[in-house]
Amino acid sequence: MRIYTKAQLERKRLTTKLWKKNNKDRVRASDKKYSEKNKDRINAYSKAWYKKNKDKKKAYNKIWCEKNKDKRKATRKAWEERNPNRRRAWHDNNKDKVKAINKAYRENNKNKINAWASEGRCRRLFATCKTSIKARREMIYLIASEISLETGIAHDVDHIIPISKGGINHEEFLMVTTHLYNCQKSAKLDHPLPEMQYLILDDLVQLYLKEV
User: Fold this and answer.
1) Number of Cβ atoms within 10 Å of the Cβ of 146
2) Within 13 Å of residue 125, how many CA atoms lie on the same side as its CB?
3) In whole angstroms, what is the distance from residue 200 CA to residue 172 CA?
4) pLDDT-derived band of residue 143, with 50, 70 and 90 as boundaries?
5) In whole angstroms, what is the distance from residue 189 CA to residue 130 CA?
6) In the chain, is it the N or the C terminus that has fewer CB atoms within a 10 Å radius of its CB?
């Protein structure tokens, strides 16, 4: 067995790297040929590695997706254009799995679902605002969910000025109130403020006690 010095190993590594760079097509063809001959072996290794490193892989994927949003969107769009029916076919063949995934997502992201629903309704009524920040609106809905869990009383996000009366979907015009109060207020402008209300100001929830 031949023993290499550190300098020899480094020189060999650089030589190999340079050769691969100058022979990309040849390397690609060789890799493809190997993959076709060893599909089962590669799949088994990949599955075993993923099983041992799930958290590591998820963390890596999350970081990569955040850094490459545009690239990921473009890649996904290109794939869907090349395979227009494949995604639909998978959904049709895995209806129960899709339902379970969607249900779990809705339960874990109630604030986002509620924010999107409100945004869609406001868009239809031309009550959107360009200066509004989506993340802040979603945070308000998250706060409403957390207050509901902590108090055991259902809370909603209410537009201080109703959309149907000229209000806009902006975080500065939103407040967290009980579901009961929200139903009683409905689209009224002259309805008295609740005894306890949560106003959203500068990314903080400040509790104001007011007497009607």
Assistant:
1) 14
2) 15
3) 7
4) confident
5) 24
6) N
